[in-house]
């Protein structure tokens, strides 16, 4: 074998030391995962509502995380050429491949019985065989790390082993899948009538738990969790072990145990990647410190020459890892200096926001098209950089070139020197949350915000009103004659009418407030700022008149009108729930007065 003794210690992701507080956080997180799993055991078989998208969502994320982890470990191996790191890379590749095949053959995801003519035994066998991978890979990693710790492979040999490792792992995945698919009659039955058999529990499940426990104990005894990544590896192995343990205790599909087991699978896949991202951030801090030290120490140039040469090699190696990792990330990630100038940005920015983010560009200027709940993201970034705001995690939105609204979660973290707290820069991240936001905060039929979104915005508006003279106003609107449309043309036409009314409301209100669907044919309009009473009346009359002029929908003649109740904060209520109730009462008063008009709650109160 083409090897040589390494003359230079090259730090890799498993040898970067962590602080006591970092290790404490990792172990607390592991304890929480363990506690959740243990608390779920007595009720593991209790059924919960079926969420069909849960398993595909979890496993697609798990596969992505594990493939990214494997990719980074292979890249790290090509740089430091330590054989043990290659084993971890193939271990995560194996786990990702087995997770993919498990999802493909699992009944009910892509086909009723699973793809490739899978039987009821195929998925349990893929599950069992997949969970042997991580503990065995960790045992092999520890042995190689002990036997070949001072060995560095040649670059050519390292590339050959990567190709061999990937090919061998893919062949093994294919072979095991074929055995599980076509050798069913030769394999023990693991699942019978929806229940786990003794073969599953005692023949394979319990050995996996014991092997994982042994690997966890030995690895912790050797590493002591002294590095961030090794500590997160312990958490990953713990989550994998608890996954099997919870399933053994009766975690049938869509039960408490089943959901907890899948959560443990997610933690197992995500834990090590989280540790790696932390290490990359730490590497950036160290690089920034070193550059500053070199630039400010010209008088000591000769003494620092030898150290800088070694540091340059380390910087180049770690920079390559960072760029590869960030380029493959599903998040748009950018590092800025203390003044908000871009130092590094991955290509994800151009994909998310339709234009590249260049080195030296001001991030606040780039984000001028992104809107936050309170103003623009540019203003928030400027406020943060100037010290007027703390580090934040905010949901922002923008309208893309196709005139569709996209939603993102933006977070920022300061990058500081751990020794003296000197600010070195800032790390910003953007994650696409469009699908999640639409599912949670928007009505599927009309596309308008729903009750939950309205409730949050109403609370924010009332809080802002305490600090300014602008008062929020609630319009509670109900359609007169909507039931007749449903009875005459059917519910499909009723749905189309609701969509038309939603468009009318948005056109009438514009950027002066929020239009939301409350329930059935009831709609809510929230005006954040009421400047004059005439403006209040004008908007109400415009809505009523425009809906009254709506005479056809999809070629069908219809006639509906609108009754609106109006409540003003804090005159008509200081609590959101009360304000909505009073607006509702005012709306019913408008109906009693002949419909097709509006009524202020204050007018009802004065009459009483």
UniProtKB/TrEMBL annotation:
<feature type="transmembrane region" description="Helical">
    <location>
        <begin position="122"/>
        <end position="141"/>
    </location>
</feature>
<feature type="coiled-coil region">
    <location>
        <begin position="294"/>
        <end position="321"/>
    </location>
</feature>
<keyword id="KW-0472">Membrane</keyword>
<dbReference type="InterPro" id="IPR033424">
    <property type="entry name" value="MASE4"/>
</dbReference>
<feature type="transmembrane region" description="Helical">
    <location>
        <begin position="161"/>
        <end position="179"/>
    </location>
</feature>
<dbReference type="Pfam" id="PF00990">
    <property type="entry name" value="GGDEF"/>
</dbReference>
<keyword id="KW-0175">Coiled coil</keyword>
<keyword id="KW-0812">Transmembrane</keyword>
<keyword id="KW-0808">Transferase</keyword>
<dbReference type="InterPro" id="IPR000014">
    <property type="entry name" value="PAS"/>
</dbReference>
<feature type="transmembrane region" description="Helical">
    <location>
        <begin position="25"/>
        <end position="45"/>
    </location>
</feature>
<dbReference type="InterPro" id="IPR043128">
    <property type="entry name" value="Rev_trsase/Diguanyl_cyclase"/>
</dbReference>
<dbReference type="InterPro" id="IPR052163">
    <property type="entry name" value="DGC-Regulatory_Protein"/>
</dbReference>
<protein>
    <submittedName>
        <fullName>Diguanylate cyclase</fullName>
        <ecNumber>2.7.7.65</ecNumber>
    </submittedName>
</protein>
<feature type="transmembrane region" description="Helical">
    <location>
        <begin position="91"/>
        <end position="110"/>
    </location>
</feature>
<keyword id="KW-0548">Nucleotidyltransferase</keyword>
<dbReference type="Pfam" id="PF13426">
    <property type="entry name" value="PAS_9"/>
</dbReference>
<feature type="transmembrane region" description="Helical">
    <location>
        <begin position="232"/>
        <end position="253"/>
    </location>
</feature>
<feature type="domain" description="GGDEF">
    <location>
        <begin position="470"/>
        <end position="603"/>
    </location>
</feature>
<dbReference type="InterPro" id="IPR000160">
    <property type="entry name" value="GGDEF_dom"/>
</dbReference>
<feature type="transmembrane region" description="Helical">
    <location>
        <begin position="199"/>
        <end position="220"/>
    </location>
</feature>
<dbReference type="GO" id="GO:0052621">
    <property type="term" value="F:diguanylate cyclase activity"/>
</dbReference>
<dbReference type="InterPro" id="IPR035965">
    <property type="entry name" value="PAS-like_dom_sf"/>
</dbReference>
<dbReference type="InterPro" id="IPR029787">
    <property type="entry name" value="Nucleotide_cyclase"/>
</dbReference>
<dbReference type="Pfam" id="PF17158">
    <property type="entry name" value="MASE4"/>
</dbReference>
<keyword id="KW-1133">Transmembrane helix</keyword>
<feature type="transmembrane region" description="Helical">
    <location>
        <begin position="57"/>
        <end position="79"/>
    </location>
</feature>
